[in-house]
């Protein structure tokens, strides 16, 4: 059986046991993007064990994982789980489902975190934060022993920024236009354009405000920005920047749901 997504994760260990064989005589079932997200999320929850402290991600894919954890808790298949939510919306979801919660002050080491991603490159680097929760996500996921990323195959890119969609940067509101221009100048050779994220539509949009009271600048790239660690350092050196949405060398497992089934890739 061929390895899923051979152009990605080629040097990593890939579990193909869940992949649909191309020689199968059964006609493939066409699944919606949300159904693919649910499949990836449910597979990730199989890694959760009783007694764990679990980072609960934010977004449409992670939401399915939180739902499944709650279901297993209520059925008794999981016990003594403590959740660490990565956003206010995930906190509200977990409370509504009866998942016991805590924070990094009481649990500075997290056993496992499950979260989605907006982009995944072949080295398992990520873009996260198009949902606006990148700072809290990074704080929790940097404290975890095992970080499982769950995506559908549309999130795979050849390089970070390769989707043409936003790479978010959380900034303080003070003089945000100044910070935006400085961010653009860092990546002028990559054709970078920055935009302040706003709420809703219409002509009277207000700046989007994160859970931490900050603004978000969305960066759009026409070309590869180059070495990601250098790019990260350059962004974080700018006064006014709080955090960026590149999650470099943080994922330990990537679960991808796609037309052929589900692949599980573990970093060596």
From TrEMBL:
Note the Gene3D superfamilies from the entry: 3.30.70.260, 3.40.50.1360
Enzyme Commission code: 5.3.1.6
Q: Which GO terms describe its biological process?
A: pentose-phosphate shunt, non-oxidative branch
TM ranges are none
Q: Name one GO molecular function term.
A: ribose-5-phosphate isomerase activity
Q: What's the protein called, per UniProt? A: ribose-5-phosphate isomerase
For this UniProt record, the keywords arranged alphabetically read as follows: Isomerase
Enzyme superclass (EC): isomerase
Q: Which family does it belong to?
A: Belongs to the ribose 5-phosphate isomerase family.
PANTHER family hit by this protein: RIBOSE-5-PHOSPHATE ISOMERASE (PTHR43748:SF10), RIBOSE-5-PHOSPHATE ISOMERASE 3, CHLOROPLASTIC-RELATED (PTHR43748)
- Read off the InterPro entries from this record: NagB/RpiA_transferase-like, Ribose-5P_isomerase, Ribose5P_isomerase_typA_subgr, Ribose5P_isomerase_type_A
**Pathway(s):** Carbohydrate degradation; pentose phosphate pathway; D-ribose 5-phosphate from D-ribulose 5-phosphate (non-oxidative stage): step 1/1
